[in-house]
Amino acid sequence: MRIVLLGTGGYHPNQRRHTACLMLPELGVIFDAGTSFFRVQQFLQTRDLQIFLTHAHLDHIVGLSFFLVPMLTDQVDSVKLYGEASKLAAIQTHLFCDEIFPLLPDYDFTPLPETVSVPEQGILKHIPLEHPGGSVGYRIDWPGHSLAYITDTANPEQHLEFVKGVDLLIHECYFPDDMAEWADKTGHSHTTPVAELARAANVRKLVLTHIDPQKTGDDPIGIKVAQQIFPNTILGEDLMELEF
């Protein structure tokens, strides 16, 4: 199973990272639609797509306006867009209002049911997360494989049971530990609690993402701190491909 990290930054893009989007190309499954969503086109391998939004903050949805041409030029047959009903309504009302973007792509806006079937016998479920305006985390279980995607949340320990035992945990880590106060104020995560979650949940691999765009160096969140707690931790980078 292969996943591509199309965008690993938060809030706004910088020279190193675009904002949130993950894709499983062989399955046509996508998480979030940030500024990196323009890269979806080059990884298309299916005629049908399922997009799962965590929430409707701009850094996670603005890329939905980038996909008009692939849809108009028949590069896909269908795009089903899942999210909480209130978030989908906000996207339709505001992002795609006539004054901002008057051409609405032919998305199938679908409020999240309790579970969703995805290709290769996968079952997706979701959990509410603590974040201003609300967010959701996702988990997919296939026969022999599992993945969890948790972004824009405070208090990682609250979803311990949800991510327990997954092969791959992709979790936001916007701040290093010395900015823990800012994490609490903004509803985001910092390094140590995320690594402690991975250890307690007995996941196989942890990938840290949704990085503060003001930090453009090679170690924006204190990767060695995380690895001391949970050794199989890596820092996500744009266009990184992972097998799990």
UniProtKB/TrEMBL annotation:
Q: Write down the Pfam families for this protein, in alphabetical order.
A: Lactamase_B_2 (PF12706)
Q: What class of enzyme is it?
A: hydrolase
Which part of the chain is the Metallo-beta-lactamase domain?
Answer: 29-211
- Which SUPFAM superfamilies would you find in this protein's record? Metallo-hydrolase/oxidoreductase (SSF56281)
Write the record's keywords in alphabetical order, separated by commas: Hydrolase
* Enzyme Commission code(s) on record: 3.1.-.-
Extract the InterPro entries matched here.
Metallo-B-lactamas, RibonucZ/Hydroxyglut_hydro
Keyword match Hydrolase: yes
Q: Name one GO molecular function term.
A: 3'-tRNA processing endoribonuclease activity
Identification of the protein by name: Ribonuclease BN
This chain's source organism reads Gimesia algae
Question: What's the encoding gene here?
Answer: rbn_1
